[in-house]
Amino acid sequence: MPDSLIDLRSDTVTRPTPGMRDAMATAEVGDDVYGEDPTVTALEAEVAALFGHEAALFAPSGSMANQIALQLVVPPAHELLCDADAHVVTYEIGAAAAYGGISSRTWPAVGADIDPDVVAAMVRPDGYFAVPTRAIAVEQTHNRGGGGVIPLATLRELRRVADEAQLALHCDGARIWHAHVADGVPLVEYGRLFDTMSVCLSKGLGAPVGSLVVGSAEKIERARFIRKRMGGGMRQVGVLAAAGRYALAHHVERLAEDHAKAARLAEAVAPFGVLATPARTNIVPLDLTKSPLDAHALAAAARDEGLLISVLGPRTARLVTHMDVDDAAVDRAVDILTRVLRR
Asked: Which residues carry this modification: N6-(pyridoxal phosphate)lysine (predicted)?
């Protein structure tokens, strides 16, 4: 195995840049549980303004941010609608049910390709012991949907569906920065469509940790209590918030570079019939149904050559580009993938 590994498993594996480390080292801090950390307060105000909302709340993880937001809009024993591959029901180990008492129902997994009429038909009103629907959740970009971007027109239609049924609309915006860069939709345009949002600083932006819940001032005040109940109250956390502020100032527009690298990888694997969908952002989804290699065999062979990839299922895998993978590393990854797939 080569001494240096190229890690394309996720965009969460990045290391803080020297500038980010300097910002962390010099951050002004206080006790955030008391609301006295000025760097956290500044980050929360900045993110809220970016999306045109009144307030935001810093949380240690995207999963916690999502679950806080869902508890804000779905009471216990009521229902959330989302797609079958959504992060909130796939990778958060049943937290909506375990912590929020939330029931969930899903439409067939189609990633970013959502039919608002299908969603509308799923809404259950109050009455005769049915579990009433209270919110719809979407994921932008869509992780298991290959980094797909939900079109703005679709989101506007979902907003109409939510308004007509008097539902809340939540966005798991872990990689909404990538959607913003890919489609050029202003962040405030996304923000005005959603009642609550979660946005991540450690996926693509290079911060070591942290996500935020975004919403109205009233919701975020409630969110502080939910965060504390879930164990998310943090003290002198400005050292982490400083990394997030640095990431927002320096690492959003450069996501276009990651998208271009993903497009190169997609172009390289496409002739082998394993590209599941076109690479819209920084995720290259692989479908190995017609390949002699299953996902685990591909990952093992690639690792032996010095490349780490993520296995999502027996015949599905993904490649994710990020700021710690330069052009030379992409060249090496292309060489490794083409040699392994050609076997």
From this structure: 203
